[in-house]
Write a structure and sequence with these properties.
CATH class of the largest domain: Alpha Beta
CATH superfamily of the largest domain: P-loop containing nucleotide triphosphate hydrolases
Bound molecules: adenosine-5'-diphosphate, magnesium ion
Helix content: 25-40%
Distance between the termini: 89 Å
Number of helices: 7
CATH topology of the largest domain: Rossmann fold
Order of helices and strands: EEEHEEHHHEHEHEEH
Strand order of the largest sheet: 5-6-7-3-8-9
Number of strands: 9
């Protein structure tokens, strides 16, 4: 009997546990990510998102459970973490064997920065630096791309452009993606599936069945956004009602 290799998920996590002191941050967590699938992971601050990402990236160990991930995986963090003493192209190719400048330049072209290949990191804007970090991740052709709030430090307009760029690059290169974010709209815009991490496990894990490009004005988008906010423990804002003015207000 043969196994269809495409049916083997890129990521398979079962019964994952990670505790700090006597607090289990991840507790019996289960997650599968198919090859080429884009999963967004939402969770409140401190819910364990980075802890999970670090375990999947082998930067940290687990206290129990099973974690299967591909060998070829890379992480992009909230801050670009470029080496200031290396020029942009050298940053992109740092983890590659020698003589791979052409691959580095191609990756820079994909993020629109080929003209900056000889620039120093200190001369880049925040968005440009983060695009270099993305090029450095993609040039290694990862089967799993781990993104830890990669847009959180960017201004609103740059963030939207970066979201589009990441969506486009992931559709082209088809790595499995785990995007950690606390931005519900970002998750619904980009992901094939969204999950919510709460109390150590995924309380929601839902396929996003909304056609792309996704419009936040679409009722299906708004409904999913509302549901996810509720799962995160945030009530959707009530309609604005002016508070009644006491009759004696203004009378001194
Ligand atoms: N190395 C560590 N030692 C002790 N506590 C930690 C460590 N790393 C994370 N934590 C704690 O685990 C919880 C989850 O952290 P984290 O995964 O960074 O959350 P998130 O990324 O969702 O904001 C937090 O309460 C944090 O303080
Ligand atoms: Mg975090």
């Amino acid at each position: 009997m043969t196994t269809d290799p495409t049916s083997v998920p890129a990521v398979r996590v079962r019964g994952l546990r990670r505790a700090f002191g006597d607090r289990a941050v991840l507790d019996d967590l289960r997650l599968d990510i198919a090859r080429g699938e884009f999963v967004a992971l939402l969770g409140a601050s401190g819910s364990g998102k980075t802890t999970l990402l670090r375990i999947l990236g082998a930067l940290d160990g687990a206290d129990g459970g099973e974690v299967l991930v591909p060998e070829a995986r890379t992480i992009v963090f909230q801050e670009p973490r470029l080496v200031p003493s290396k020029r942009v192209l050298a940053n992109v190719t740092a983890a590659l064997p020698r003589n791979r400048s052409a691959d580095g330049l191609r990756a820079l072209a994909e993020v629109g920065l080929e003209r900056h290949s000889e620039a120093w990191p200190a001369t880049l804007s925040g968005g440009e630096a983060q695009r270099v970090a993305l090029a450095r991740a993609l040039v290694r052709e990862p089967e799993l791309l781990l993104l830890d709030e990669p847009f959180a430090a960017l201004d609103a307009l740059t963030r939207l452009k970066m979201q589009d760029l990441v969506g486009e690059l992931c559709r082209r290169h088809r790595p499995a993606v785990l995007l950690v974010t606390h931005d519900v709209e970002e998750a619904v815009r980009l992901a094939d599936r969204v999950a919510v991490l709460r109390d150590g496990r995924l309380v929601t894990d839902e396929t996003v069945g909304i056609a792309r490009p996704r419009d936040p004005g679409d009722p299906a988008f708004a409904a999913l956004r509302r549901r996810l906010l509720a799962d995160l423990g945030v009530d959707a804002p009530a309609p604005f009602l002016p508070s009644p003015v006491p009759a004696e207000a203004g009378v001194i």
